Amino acid sequence: MNKFIKILFISLSVLLFVFILSYKLNNTKDTVQKIKERGEILVGTTGDYQPMSYLNPQTKTYVGFDVELIEDLAKDLNVKIKYIPTTWPTLMADTIVGKFDLAICGITITNDRKKQALMSNGYLRNGKTVLCRKEDLNKYVNLESINKPEVRVMENPGGLNEKFAREKLPKAILIIHDINQEIPELIANGKADVMITETTEAIFYASKNKKLAVPLAKKPFTKSQIGILLPKENKMLLKYVNKFLSKERNSGRLKQLEEKYLFE
Does residue 258 fall inside a structural domain? Predict the structure, then answer.
C-alpha cells in the first residue's frame, strides 16, 4: 500500500511539474513570437492627435504619422493591425494591464511614464509650445505673458498638456475641452486664447488654418521626444521596436514622414 502511494505521489509530482513547466513556457514566450503566431499586433491609440494619430469620422479609419509608422512595423512583422481605442486619461492604465501590445499616438517620453511602463527610443523631436491666433503672434511669447487672469487656456483632459498648464499657468483661466481636435478651431474663433500643445500638433494646425500661429515653434518651453509605449513585460518587443525605429531613421523614412505630416 505504501509502495502504491509512493508511486502515485511520484506520478502526480511529475504531472504537476510538466503542467507548471508548460504554463511557464507559454507565459514567458516573448511578445514578438505571440504577435506573429496571432497574426496581428494590438495597437492602442487615442485617435485624436493630428498629425500623429487621427480617427477620420467619415471613413472610420486612422490616419497620420504614427499610423504610417505602425503600418511599417506591421509589415516588418508580417502581421495585420488591430487598433484598440484608448484615451489620454486611461492610456497608462490600459498599457499596464496589457490591453494592447503597444501604444502609439504622439506620446511624449517622460521619466514618470518610464517608471510605470516601457518606452521606445525617441523617433521625433517635440516640445511644449503655444498655439494662438495670428493676431496675437507677438503677444504670447513666454509663460509670463500667458499666466494672467484674463488669458483663457484650453486643453484636453488627462494628458501632459493639461498637467503643464495647471503647473505653469496657475493664474490663467483653464478651460477643459473633451475633444482635442476641436480646440484649435475654438482658439481661431475666439472661444479661448491659447492652447499649450506639442510643436508637432501646433505646427500642423497652424499650417491648416491661416488664423492660427505658433510664436515659439523654434523655441518651445520644453524639449522632448515622442516614443512608443509598451507594458513592462514586453521587453523583447521593445528591443524589436527600437531596431525597427533605427532602420526607419537610417533609411530616411522618419524624415519623409516628418516632411509629409508636419510641413506639407
Answer: yes
